[in-house]
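= Paired protein data =
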Amino acid sequence: MLNLASTSDIVQVVTSAAAQVEVHASWVDLNTSTGAITPGRTNTPAITTATTTTAVAAPAASTVRNVKHLNVTNDHASASCTVTVEHTDGTNNVELMAFTLLPGENMIFNEEGRWVHRDAQGAEYPPSGLGSYNGRSIGFMKSGTASDAIGYWYCTSKDAGFPGAWAPGTPGVNGRNTDGTNSADYGCFPIANPTTGGNYLTEVNMAASVNHTHVLFDCLWVNSGLVVTTTTAQTIASGTLPARDINGTTNGEGCGIALLFVAASTLAAVGSNLTVNYTNSDGTAGRTATLSAIVGSQVPATPVVGTLVWFNLQAGDRGVRSIQGITLGTSMLTGTISLMITRDIATIGTTIPNVNAQKIIGTPGIRLYNGTCLLHSVLTSATTATFFAGELVVMEK
């Protein structure tokens, strides 16, 4: 609905060119003093210049005028015209909708509040911009190597296939923000930034030669240069994240912390005494992320390259805004590690070897913000080297 609630409220039509624009409006008036309901309508004489015209006049005192229908047609034989519909309270003009109407086209506002743009034959236009008609499928194939013991996490980012291998690079302990559209992060799923609107993940298809649980995640920040033999705190200043948390902001809501083994380590025994000092998504500093002494939430005894370990956030925290340090607690003796700040995107399980599993994601899908650096990982059901194949469907809306 569209209400005119004061004697200064009007709906006006702004035309950009000398065409022939015709306007019909229907409304219902409610007298707030007597309760009387009175329908009304206006046919505006043809607008033939670039001008601003009142389409729905202001109601009388003690009356609310509810606009039920507005029909604007360009009846010119050859000229196009951009038509903007505005609501004004006498001081503030607010644009409600604008369309470029070709000859014979019209724009309609109905009592449900929906705007429709129709061509000269009366057919409804699809959503403006590329909208839901710009879907793309992104293939995925990786030749994974043997993982750690069953129940640990393994990331395929370093493996050959399509896309090719991804690596953190050498940004140092303070790390870098990622951007999947830049060459430094080629190797993540190749998701081009939208030309209009936003990208949404609407479908995941996955097959594997060995069944696992698959998790797709966006890596927002990654570092390098941590010393695996230092057991005391190593200071980190991760800086401001890219605007890719669950709300599309830099606050890090919905983001977590992961440790990636870039080169195999020779840790003598499983480790759960690692901690990360961080600032949570609400801006509270001095928070501590920990591990648990359980398979899947600790560092395995001999982590292979690709091993991924997820940290537990402190109770009550909803995300990670920045990282200030890591303490290994126990020397890892050898190897190379990188910390990551990540946002989980989608999970899917495969149940029959080499047979595709499908996950349809409800409308509108999961938002993939510009620069998403999407990587693939699995919670392993076996240590066997695995071949992965899949496909993502990303819609621009």
The mean pLDDT is 94. Residues 3 and 66 are 5 Å apart (CA to CA). Residues 133-396 form one domain.
